[in-house]
Each structure stands twice: as C-alpha cells, then as structure tokens.
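call fold(seq) -> tokens
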Amino acid sequence: MALNEWSILLIYVGFILLSRVLISLFYLRGRFDVNGNGRIDPDEVGFLNDTQGKLVVLEKPNYYDLSIMSLIRVFSEAMMHAFCYGSIVVFSVNICVTNMDTRYAYLMVVYMIQMACMFMCHFATNGIHVVTSNAVHVLYYGFGFIPLAFLWLQPEQKYLTVIAVLATLAITVISRRIALPNYPEFKELTRVYQLDRTTGEWNLASVPSLVETQESQAAKLELAPGGATGTVSETAVVFPTNEILHTHISSSLTIGILTALVTHHIIGAFILAEARVFPGLSLAISVTVAIVITMLVQSVGLYGRTEKKMHTLVLIKYWPKTLAVSFAALGAAIATIQFNPMASANDRATPIIYW
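ret:
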C-alpha cells in the first residue's frame, strides 16, 4: 500500500531529527567545544584565529582583504542572500524536475535548500555565518525557504510544505544549540568600527581580546569607554571583501526576483491578464523595472548617504553598480519565466514562448 503525504512527511521529519541530533551530540559538539566547558569560547572559532593580525582596508580592498560592512546591511543582505540561494534551488528544480511524485518532491527541495544554506554558510559567506548568533541563523534559513512558494511540484495538501519548513527550522535550532552551546556575541569574534558623525570617518571601536595588532593596540588608546554604541547603520563589522561582494550580488538578484513578482501580479491584475502577449510583455517590463529600482537603490542608498559611501568605497574595484543592475535584471528575467509554469505536477502544459 502506498504511503500517503502525511506518512512520508513524518518519516522525513523523524529521520532528519534523529540523524542531526546524533551528529550534533556525538560529533559536532566535541569538534567545536574543544575544551568541553559547555560553551563556545572565542578562541575556538576559526574565523577569529584566521583574521587575527590582518589589517582592515577601508578603501579599495583587494578580493581577500578584510574590510567593513554596516550591521544593518549585514542583517538585510544576509536575509536576501539566503532568499537568493533558495530561489536558485527552487527555480532549478522547476526546470529540471517535472515528473517526480508530489508526495515527496517538496521534501527533497526543502532538504536541498537546507543544504544550499549550509553550503552558503561554509563557503560564500563563512565570516558572516560565524559571527551571527543561533537565532539569526534560523531567521535567514527561514528566508531561504520562502521561495518554496514558487515551487511547481507542490503536494496536494499545500500546507504540508509549511509544516516541513517549520519542522526543519525547529530541528536546526535544536541541533545548533547542542553543537554550539552559549555561542559568543559578534563583538567577541570580529573587530567593530563606528562612524564618527563629525568627521564622517569610520573608526575602530571594539577589538576582540585575542586580536592584538599594531592597528588595534594604537586604536585602543582612543576608544570610547563604552565601545561601539552607534546605531546599526553607524556600526560596522569586519569581514573578507569577497563575502561582502557575494552578498552584494545575491541581494541584487533577490531585488530582481521580488520586483518581477510584484510587476507580474500588477500586470496580470490590471493590464493583459488573458492576452497571449502577456508573458513576453511581463518579462520586458519586469526587467526594466528591476533595472530602474536597482539604479535608484545604488545611487541613493537604503541606509543613509554615509553608509552608502562607505560601502561603495569597499566595492569600488568591482563595479558594484554594474554588478547590481546586471544581476537584478537576471533575477527579474528568471523569476518572470518561473511564474508561468511549463508543466503542472500531473500534466504537461503548452510551452510558453518569451521571444
């Protein structure tokens, strides 16, 4: 007798819960909590040891140099970064997989997004991954699952997708608390800079106790007694430049996807919902709107002129505006095609021609 959707979901959740708890308890806990004191000490975090002694370059850094990124941008772009990775997974499955049984197809995609987010944390943005707390991890993993709304291979009872996502996030919370107990705050893991409103310069405000460079020793003499006390747009943390560039690209792709989503529904509701030319028109308009919005964002800035100037100087060698516009246009184009399924789970539809 074939298993129903609920049975398959329960088997999936049970297997993932058991395997991750066991791995966290018997392998990861000992790997990360080296001294076995029941907390992750700063000197047990590889990122802090790897960046110790390296100078921070605030203007035109090379690809592997350390530079700075404001807290507000770290938070927002981390969420968009995860959303981008989730979208790539979902869109790829939509195009490459059309005949899988919908009772378990969505579970495969949930697991793939989880793996993509772990890959993202380990390679593309490891520094950002390391300095963020367990709670923030769960939040941006959650953003990675949002693109499941675009998945064509949905189960018959669509709410099962939501249950699978919530169960996966809950398991992530449990496993991280076991493997990484009492994780240190970001100020204990990376240097913190703060904007001087008078001069418009970004000055070192906080240094982890393990980091003792000539830069930090000299700056400590001038640090304010309270350390970094500015707002999230006036406080910046230190990451490798390549990670700052990665989130810049992925967040631009996300802006394009979200722009296409809004544009698609506006056109469908008010202009040419039934016209045969609709897909092509939607594609052209979505890409154009995404380009315009991204150019405005890159020109004006979302977090203030001073923060925008700092971020531009960090990425100026890599043509940040050109990259942002290009990837936003790409995101809008890919997303527009995804909003018009080529086939349902059980039946092939007529292919849609976009040119």
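The CA atoms of residues 342 and 351 lie 5 Å apart.
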